[in-house]
Design goal:
By secondary structure, this protein is α/β, with parallel strands linked by helices. The protein contains 8 helices and 7 strands, in the order βαβαβαβαβαβαααβ. A 7-stranded parallel β-sheet has the order 3-2-1-4-5-6-7, sandwiched between helices.
Length: 271
């Protein structure tokens, strides 16, 4: 597997980011955790959310890891908030924590997501509802709360996690494909409407990335070879490579970019 993934660090630094405050939803583990850790290592204060108390432990672990870095920089701090992204009031609780702890909000990453599987003719209503509640409605609520603050405080940046599945159909993922397509179109709609307030909204569309959500590709016979055959770069992506796109979109280097989607998929959307 390591032959197919490049986990080497992303060295990009943006001098406008240290001291800012950002939220990452769905960050107790996986890609969200990495986003939080990488942002904090660059001087950003981060509020992370997840459904369980594990998010509190994750925040403490990241802070400890940063304090032990040999080449310490001016790291930010991370705090955790237990929150359900399908409940708007939980996003409001998250915003309140950011303001109380760090004095404001500059960026928000709607990262929380679910990855259900079923053939289209077999999709149960409960799965379809869950896919939209978490992936799409959760993104809407997070964006509404974030933008509600940002529009009165000079603007900000929102990054939504779409997927290559929003651009290219994957068999057996009808609920996911549809919900992520909704997330992408929602991002475009938000960008158009929030531009009046200097709030930028963009999306990132990962392809095959080395996370728990894609472990199935290693477990099914022939799935890895098939997957790599549909990726022009012929390898699986690393979470840090997704972070590089997110980091850019949050920074002032992307200050004239809104309503865009960066595909981090090795080119697979074209195959």
């Amino acid at each position: 597997m390591e032959n197919y993934v490049n986990h080497s660090p992303i060295e990009a630094q943006y001098p406008d980011l240290p001291g800012k405050t950002m939220v990452v939803t769905g960050a107790a583990q996986g890609m969200g955790r990495l986003f939080a850790s990488q942002l904090a290592s660059r001087g950003v204060n981060v509020v992370i959310t997840d459904l369980s108390d594990a998010v509190l432990d994750t925040a403490a672990e990241i802070n400890q890891e940063l304090s032990e870095m040999v080449l310490q920089t001016e790291n930010g701090r991370v705090i955790g908030v237990v929150a359900d992204v399908t409940k708007k009031q939980d996003h409001e609780k998250t915003l309140s924590a950011a303001i109380e702890e760090f004095g404001g909000l500059h960026g928000w990453i709607n990262n929380a997501g679910v990855f259900p599987e079923a053939a289209s003719l077999d999709i149960p209503e409960s799965q379809f509802d869950l896919a939209f509640d978490v992936n799409t409605k959760g993104t809407l609520f997070g964006s509404q709360v974030a933008a509600g603050y940002m529009k009165d405080h000079g603007g900000g940046a929102i990054v939504n996690m779409a997927s290559v599945a929003a651009l290219r159909i994957r068999r057996g993922r009808g609920s996911y494909n549809t919900a992520k397509a909704g997330t992408l179109q929602l991002s475009y709609s938000l960008a158009v409407e929030l531009g009046d307030f200097n709030v930028r909204v963009n999306a990132v569309a990962p392809g095959f990335i080395d996370t728990a959500m894609t472990q199935w590709v290693h477990e099914r016979e022939g799935a890895l070879d098939h997957a790599l055959g549909n990726v022009p770069l012929h390898r699986i992506g690393a979470p840090v490579e997704v972070f590089a796109a997110v980091l850019f979109l949050l920074s002032d280097s992307a200050r004239y970019i809104t309503g865009s989607c960066i595909s981090v998929d090795g080119g697979s959307r074209h195959v």
